[in-house]
Amino acid sequence: MCAILYMLPWVDVTEKTVYFVERFPAFVWTEYFSEPFEHWYNIHEYAPLFIFFATYLGIVRNKKIPHVARYHVMMGVMLDIVAMILIVTEENLPTGVLWTPWSDLFYALMFWFIFLLVIYCLFFCFLGWYCEIPLISEGVYLQIEQAEQLGQ
Description:
Elements: H1 7-16, H2 18-23, H3 31-41, H4 47-60, H5 67-91, H6 95-98, H7 101-127, H8 136-150
Helix pairs in contact: 1-3, 1-5, 1-7, 4-5, 5-7, 5-8
């Protein structure tokens, strides 16, 4: 169940990296992972916000769920925040940069960055281990610790 939330950043990124996938058709298969989740993620404009609060209040703050499961759920949310930062950066690029080869490079880097992070985290999630990513893991530990303190 924890691995499902790693699809949130992947859904966000696949919407923006369509040009990269069209340019390199060998990576079309990567879009098939996000298709089942796109419907639920885009069903309403507030669906991402609802998903965030449902996972945070229902899973991360629930001490009955093992810590490693709560860690991976929060890691999926944090990776989604990282993906959103990349998307907001892309949307606010000047038009002079947006239609140049630099934008293709940005889309490729965004695709590979999130793709490799999701694969890395899924690997450790399926093993039941903690995956350590500098800065992001620290934020996840802090969020879980705060959630535990608020739940007391």
